[in-house]
Write a structure and sequence with these properties.
Number of strands: 28
Radius of gyration: 27 Å
Structural class: alpha/beta
Distance between the termini: 87 Å
Shape: globular
């Protein structure tokens, strides 16, 4: 029989409930106001250090403003000595680019990171540059988890890498999620990522949200996304910004890929990035009730961990001995600056390297009586400036680190125009596809907007909808350009396999291609030694007027 309440009688259960709530409120006030609505985890003893796009620039350099890995370790050591719990993360592109790590195919980079004490990293697009088998080997060598929640092996439907991890620091249970740019499908060598699907757009958001929810369900009190994503407009829908706009529950997003410095908030989450090459060391602290980025710029910390420094110096000495062989001389810099530079406009380094490709291709094809008309090198493949003075094997390897095999492709003028127009789709904004050329001249009118046509299969890029409206090829092989003529063009394997915006080369019937048996750096070395007698001539002191950008 149920309890019957008399009119005007205060129910016993309601009285007990009110008493409990009042007691809870009083206790909350006595303990600093930590009621249910105001509970907040205290992270004041936790510091997050982070790096991104180190690209093997792991040895301290006063000339280049590089802190290096020993300085990262030194800062970590100091914070730990001060009683802090330190979480150390990297946002990808760690194992490729600088000669210091290229000779070991990135093994030395992982060795350095192990010595420093990294807790986790995500895969960047350049982690795939040596091929998937090498990527897997580097992942197995790491004494920390290497993460990516959005790379699927198409043959099995399984993830290529561990999607996330839980790391405990002091009383903190931290969920860390790895994310790799979908642009890796084209910005990495197409052969190196064959058989992998990089989830983008809604599929990407769903994959990240799934990890956030799972980590929260396992009791994580902090969710950190470590993403090699970037914020560039041409990659809209697949940027760090887009993830934060479409995924709930991320507290901090540590970004990479676009080499930018970021310190801003999106829907309450901190978005942070250091730039690149450890010019800055990321340093995130919890103060004023929220996470704050306090970058550590070059030379604000000059304490290096002795053991890490000795390891790096030993590897560097060995590599430098191998690369010290002189190839020739130049009385001026061959400028490989990125932006503004090889990704936005004609540069003297682009002229020089494209000429080397064209010269090597014609020498290789001469026995077949074939004339190669032109050459293209995408600006993103030119990675460093060759400084004036003695030019060494190391200088050439630093400028062209990919060991890309050279090909000659046979292509109609109409299709060549599409390649150039797609590769300058974001110009004057930087793009890795930007064509540095030899044996041809072209003009880009940036006042005309690039209108997307069909999306290239397996790519994040689009063909031009209005072919020829924005780009005009003026001449090829010393003659006026002809849309219907068939041309032979020297390119790297990266281009002929559809890297960056060049997916049109992989469409049926567009090109026929043949390898000439030389890699890019060997072609540059041969051109300098054999054709130029070891001296870069003054004609390369400035760009030669092959590319016109109308703004």
């Amino acid at each position: 029989m149920g309890f019957q309440q008399s009119k005007g009688e205060f129910p016993m259960r309601k009285w007990l409930m009110c008493f409990g709530l009042a007691l809870y409120f009083v206790l909350g006030v006595m303990t600093g106001g930590c009621t249910a609505a105001a509970v907040q985890h205290d992270f004041s003893d936790l510091v997050i250090l982070h790096t991104n796009d180190t690209h093997g620039y792991d040895q301290r350099s006063d000339e280049s403003g590089v802190n290096g890995m020993a300085a990262v370790a030194g800062l970590r050591d100091k914070l730990i000595a001060d009683g802090k719990n330190v979480l150390l993360l990297d946002a990808g592109d760690a194992i490729q680019d600088n000669n210091l790590v290229n000779f070991s195919k990135g093994a030395s980079a992982i060795e350095f990171m192990n010595a420093v004490g990294y807790d986790a990293m995500c895969l960047g697009n350049h982690e795939f540059d040596y091929g998937q088998d090498v990527t897997q080997k580097r992942m197995s060598e790491a004494k920390f988890p290497v993460l990516a929640c959005n790379i699927v092996v198409e043959a099995t439907g399984e993830l290529f890498a561990q999607p996330s991890t839980i790391i405990e620091k002091g009383n903190h249970k931290i969920g860390v999620i790895g994310i790799t740019t979908p642009e890796a499908a084209t910005s990495a060598s197409p052969m190196a990522v064959a058989g992998l699907k990089f989830l983008g757009g809604k599929e990407l958001y769903k994959a990240v949200q799934r990890e956030v929810d799972r980590l929260k369900g396992e009791g994580c009190d902090l969710i950190v996304a470590v993403g090699h994503m970037g914020s560039e407009n041409f990659n809209a829908g697949n940027r760090s910004d887009d993830v934060l706009e479409n995924v709930k529950g991320i507290d901090i997003f540590i970004d990479g890929h676009d080499h930018a410095v970021k310190n801003r908030r999106i829907k309450g989450a901190l978005l942070a990035e250091t730039g690149c090459y450890t010019h800055n060391i990321g340093h995130i602290v919890f103060t004023g009730g929220k996470w704050q980025e306090e970058l550590v710029p070059f030379d604000s910390t000059n304490v290096e961990d002795n053991g890490v420094k000795k390891l790096i110096d030993r590897v560097a000495a060995d590599v430098n001995d191998k690369l010290a062989r002189a190839i020739g001389t130049t009385s001026f810099d061959l400028d490989g600056t990125r932006d503004p530079g090889v990704r936005t406009q004609e540069m003297n380094s682009g002229d020089f390297i494209a000429d080397a490709f064209l010269w090597q291709a014609n020498n290789a094809m001469v026995i077949d009586g074939v004339k190669v008309d032109a050459a293209i090198i995408n600006g993103g493949s030119i990675r460093a400036t060759i400084k004036n003075g003695t030019v060494t094997l190391g200088d050439i390897s630093r400028s062209a680190p990919y060991n890309n095999v050279l090909y000659v492709m046979t292509i109609k003028g109409r299709d060549l125009l599409e390649l150039i127009e797609a590769a300058t789709c974001s110009t004057p904004r930087a793009i890795g596809a930007f064509p540095q050329v030899a044996g041809m001249r072209y003009t880009v009118d940036t006042r005309v907007p690039y209108v997307n046509g069909r999306q290239y299969p397996g790519s994040t890029y689009y063909a031009p909808k209005n072919l020829g409206s924005r780009v005009k090829i003026d001449e090829v092989g010393g003659e006026p350009f002809d849309m219907d003529k068939v041309y032979r063009v020297a390119v790297s394997e990266f281009v002929v396999r559809g890297g960056d915006t060049y997916s049109h080369t992989t469409e049926p019937g567009v090109v026929e291609s043949v390898s000439i048996g030389y890699v890019d750096k060997v072609a540059i070395e041969n051109y300098l030694k054999e054709e130029l007698d070891g001296i870069v001539p003054d004609v390369y002191a400035k760009p030669q007027g092959r590319i016109t950008i109308i703004k």
